[in-house]
Amino acid sequence: MIERCVEETSGITSFAARVSRYFLDFLETDFKKQQAPRRKIQLKNDAGFRTGLPLRKYPDLYMVIWKILSSDIGEISPLRIARSRFTAPISPILRNLIRNHVNSMESDAFIRVRQETIDYARRNRGKAVENPEQYIENVQIAFVESVSKSIVRPVLALLDGPFRQQSYSAVESVYEVETDLAEALAVHVVTQLPSALNDVVVSSEFRTLEKVLDELFSEEETKERAKAFFEDFATADAYQELRDLSNYVRLGGESLQLYLYVCDLRFGTSAYPICYIPASVKLDESNGEIVVEFDPHLFVNKRAIDYIIQEMGSSAVKLALSPIDNRIIYLEPHQAFIDEIHRVLVKMLSVFDLSGEFDVRAPKIQALSSANLRLTKNAYFAVFDKSDESLLNDYEALLAIVNEDQKNVVNLFHDIIKGFLIDEPVSVRGRISDNWDAMPIPDRLVAMSPIPLNEEQRKIIAALDDPDCRFITVQGPPGTGKSHTITAIAFVCILKGRNVLILSDKKEALDVVEDKLKTTLSSIRQDDDFPDPILRLGKTGNTYTRLISHSSQEKIRNHYKASKGLADKLEKDIQAIETYIRHSIAQAIDAFSKITLREIEELHLLEDHLETILPGITQGLQQANGGTSLVHLEASLSALNNADPLVEYFSRRYREGSLSKLIELVKIYSIVAKLKNLRSRKPSLSLFEPLGVHQLPILQRFIREYEDLKMPILGYLFRGSKLKALAVRITQELPCINSLDIHNHLNELKVVHDSMVLIRETLAESGLPEEYSKTVYSLLLKDSEHCEDASNFLEFLENIKRIIEANPGCHNNQLVVGGKYFQTTSELINFILSTSRYALQWHKVKQSLSSAPLFDYVGSKSKLEQLYTARMTHEIDHRFLNFVEMNRATAKTLGKVIKAKQQFPQDVFQGLKEAFPCIIAGIREFAEYVPLRKEIFDVVVIDEASQVSVAQAFPALLRAKKVVVLGDQKQFSNVKSAQASNALNQGYLNDLDKYFRANISTAADKIQRLKQFDIKNSVLEFFDLIANYTEMLRKHFRGYQELISFSSKYFYGGHLQAIKVRGKPIEEVIEFSFVKPSDKPERYKNINTPEAQFIKEMLHQMIDEGIGQTVGIITPFREQQQFLTKYIFGDSYADRFEEELRLKIMTFDTCQGEERDIIIYSMVATPTQDLLNYIFPVSMDNIEDRVEEALKVQRLNVGFSRAKEKIHFVLSKPVESYHGSIGRVLSHYKALLDDRAVPEADETDPDSPMEQKVLDWIIKTPFFQRNEEKIELTAQFPIGEYLRQLDPTYQHPAYRCDFLLQYCGEEKLINIIIEYDGFREHFTEYKKVHSGNYDTYYRPEDIERQMILESYGYKFLRINRFNLGRDPVETLSKRLYALVDSATKEENVDVVKKIIDDATSLHNGTSKVCRKCNKVKLKEAFYDPNLKNGKGGYGFICKECKYQGKRSGTYNRKRKSRRYTIRRW
């Protein structure tokens, strides 16, 4: 087992060495078929673009460059080049030619000029009286034009050809100086003409004019002026040439760079630079100067020198080993370039057979020659591919480690190679998805991040936290927020105490990330120019030097002190706002999801039914007080188990009358229910027919008389006759059923008496007259049915009666049986039952909707993000301050290391990494600084990974614990990789395969993984088989759905979710313009002059109208790009095009990573000339499988996904005339334009009266009336399409209609989606209501989607019948005002505002920090009159803490040493 492990380790180590050699050779040679080095002296490329500027043309500039090379690095200032500062003079040959042409001017030309001027003055003499000043001016103009026509143009015609051979750029045509030369020849005459013409005006005398022309425009003198004009004339200007080189660098995207070449060595037909220095070039817009800055590195063209040695050795001339040890020489501030160049030349000359004087330090051109070589002290500015020198050094270091058999190589390579080739990667995708699905919605909508994050980004962050996840792949289609995702990763790493290295091969991509980081941090800093501790390496003027300056440290220190004193408050606020947001979301979900659509449908059916019977009744019920009356009504209705028997029963017993009378009847029954105990007395009560309370005295009298007769007992025995008479009288006066023997029924009579008393008392308690006592008695005797339910029924009727009586739309005289509205009692009772159900249902729905909090989700989330930003700044400030305080000397030394672009010492890099948890660098440059050590970064992020070869990325992978690569395989890949020789590459791959099979594994799956180690693969493709987590960003933020629709459909399976809401007509988003092709053939191929002219006129119009949008032009052909660049940027509006439109002219190959508001396409093709199928694929069928046409296919995706607001096609033939894939593209957008899915703002559905009503409400609001000029309103807005993009299964309910209100505020556009739930209108159309939308009014997923859309900048105003109140117009207006106010008001959270204020006051010196309580207080709080021997002064502890310390006896006046105790989160 041990032996096998040793063998495996040895095999992997050797394999790693072979991979390193393979990658090194590729980066050094690009695997081009040619053997000779690619870096050579080349003034133009194959396409005709100027790529080099020989400085021998400009002697003064040559001298300046040599002065720079001779200066110490630390003293070199940027080279500033103004117009005409460095010009190339006319050659002696051309100067003689000019003299000869000037001397050969014909005398007749001068005579003709004089005569034409006099004739013009005579012909127009009549106008002199009317306007003498205009007359004189016209004569002057006529004279200059005559000079130009008769003298200047003939001379220039002769000189044009010779000038073209020597001239450049602004003076490429000598005709461009026609005006200047004509004015130089005419100036003396023009200044004297006014006085000479005065005589003409006054006296018509022309002799003075003739004299002036004869004396001042003589042939001899004029020829001398012409020769003098050309003496100082320049054929070229270094400014123009450098500007064109700069434009070429810009046109090449990120792949090109400007270099200064020093000394060249010619071998055979090629010349190679010996040394070269990277340089950056930019335009200083303040003064128009070109600024060139040089890197502090000297590169040696080692490959060229070695190549020449090899070739000369094979020719048996001389054989030698390479004299050059290092290809990069890092210079210290006290060193000069020229000294190192001298050392290189000395070593080189020791090998080559070149002898003679050659002093590179002398600023003059020298040369040494031999039979095969020529060394020249030339200098050039040249454009060439960006250098991979630092990566080459990495690979050489790796190979050196292997060759030296150091143990470190095992640690460095073993895990990563083994992980790529041997081990099975663990997928965490299922785990991440399951965790997300199980997460409560409030938690999904609240993230621990300073910036908003969507679902995909949250999952990427979660994957980073997973211990089993090391490699993450993120596919980011155009405009889906890759930079935002990287920013989020950086912030989370900072918050969690990790460090992150962000890499890319595109400067613009790094600029965007850096800008996003700083923009977020600036939101809680005291000024926009705050020195945030984010380290950018490799960038001209890198951030480190500024950060360690005293002023920057003080700013950071003050901000840290301010936040430290409020750290506890900050943490509490974070917890409070998080809790508030989660609780509010949960409330909203609960409120909306517990209402069913079936309930709402029932509500509207009830409303229709009630309004049919009694119009106006429901409005009053809607306005009923939802307090105790409704609570009682609901309770009483619930107590009625089944109302149908009651309805039927009382319908039989109540034939006509009012509701009040019916209630009295029911109340009688309820009394019977209360007297249910009397039913046991029925035998006694049955002695009589129903008695009334008015008969109670009679009964009492009879009982009393009988009792009187009984007393005394002996008398009773003799009063029989009287008793009989009493029984007769009872029968006569009371309705006895039978004759009554009072003696035998005395007790029963007393029971009847007591019962009647109880009935009387109960009636009195119930408020009923005693006349109902007989009815009660009757019911007690014979009818107890439904009496038990009567009490509940009575309570219900009384409750609903109170509600109805409060209804202004209903009167008691309407609720009458036998009246106008109700013919039977059952009709009235059923109506009352429906009324109660409606009132309860209405207020239930309204109460549920009202319980949903009207909280500002986006505003609250923004506050939370602000607090997290404050926490994050506290963390990075802490790290930075700890570093500079504990490592003062090292901090300053590292500044010099960075400036010199040297690698950090390994022993101090750990501290630097702690100080700067986020480091940004170019992938070609980071290795210049970062030591080659295993896993020194927690996270390495590689942006635009599809353009980064695996060879470029491998050194970064070695340095990372976790790696995130972001890119898009559907966009361009690495150009060098794509153009590498297949034959050379396959040779290396075969060697790797052979070694792998022999020493590591022959398993088929491992062999398949081995194929990933192919330099033609991007690092994004390299990760395909090993990524532990993959994610695709689907939400497209750049443009509208229509703009990205082609790419989404044909490249991403329709999965891109365009978040941007289009609130304007489709004609303002897609436009086609057709121009007439030129009748004459173009001078060069792939040029279309009419399209260029049309586009320039468009740009002029945009400037004149001040559109305030950025513009890009994309064309398929480099020739058209070059022509457009010269034609447009040679215009007088050129500076405004750049400044106001940020105009950039690109090809489909150079536009990746760019975006503009408006993209104009110049397609070039005409009916007679169409070469587009050479640029784009012929067909769109099976594009995934056509690898050989990958570049052509990718052009379509990249080129047609750059626009944010509009695409404008400029075509020279009809759309249907275009064929192939480009015809498919144009037809796609033309179809979208013709369909017009969204109606105009003032259009509504004529079949929807509800929509017209809502539109009328909106227009009548005070908000709309006062802001009409700022508002655009779109009816029938398809919000469902946008929600469906968030969730493809979403079906927009048919009962909702939507409007988009766009409010153009002073600073931004506010989109408000007004969603009206028109239940009444749509629930009557049952086809639109189905099982899919019948369950709930809003599901939790609906709330989540809405809040997600709100977080993307869209305010929702959801209105319906339940929340519009009595005045819909006023309600709408108030809510619109509130939404606009919340969108425009961006206030800092109190604790953040306090941090900013405290940091500002500390910076201004008006406050101090107490060393005891750590609070920031005004300076006065520290004043102590006892300090400074009683003179008074400001101490380090505030008076409050001193006072408390003295009282407690714990205060110690001894000063403590200064130390920063940093609170860690």
Question: Topology, pairings included?
Answer:
Blueprint: H1 2-29, E1 52-54, H2 59-70, E2 79-81, E3 87-89, H3 92-103, H4 107-123, H5 125-130, H6 132-166, H7 178-203, H8 207-216, H9 219-231, E4 234-237, H10 238-251, E5 256-267, E6 270-284, E7 289-294, E8 297-300, H11 302-314, E9 328-330, H12 337-349, E10 367-369, E11 373-385, H13 389-403, H14 408-421, H15 429-438, H16 441-444, H17 455-465, E12 471-475, H18 482-495, E13 500-504, H19 507-522, E14 535-537, H20 543-547, H21 550-564, H22 567-593, H23 597-613, H24 617-622, H25 628-639, H26 644-653, E15 657-658, H27 659-674, H28 682-685, H29 696-710, H30 713-716, H31 720-733, H32 746-766, H33 773-782, H34 787-805, E16 816-817, H35 825-851, H36 857-886, H37 888-899, H38 906-915, E17 918-922, E18 937-942, H39 950-958, E19 960-967, H40 975-979, H41 982-999, H42 1004-1010, H43 1019-1022, E20 1029-1032, E21 1035-1040, H44 1041-1051, E22 1057-1060, E23 1070-1074, H45 1089-1105, E24 1111-1115, H46 1118-1129, H47 1134-1141, E25 1144-1147, E26 1156-1162, H48 1190-1199, E27 1203-1211, H49 1220-1235, H50 1249-1260, H51 1262-1267, E28 1271-1274, H52 1279-1286, ...
Helix pairs in contact: 1-13, 1-14, 1-41, 3-6, 3-9, 4-6, 6-7, 7-8, 7-9, 18-19, 21-36, 21-56, 22-35, 22-36, 23-35, 25-34, 25-35, 26-35, 27-32, 27-33, 27-34, 29-31, 29-32, 36-37, 36-38, 45-47
Largest sheet: 9 strands, antiparallel
Proportion in β-strands: 5-15%
Stretches with pLDDT under 50, minimum 5 residues? 1-7, 168-175, 314-320, 1237-1242, 1321-1334, 1450-1465
Could you tell me how far the N terminus lies from the C terminus, measured between alpha carbons in angstroms?
A: 46 Å
- Coarse structural class: alpha/beta
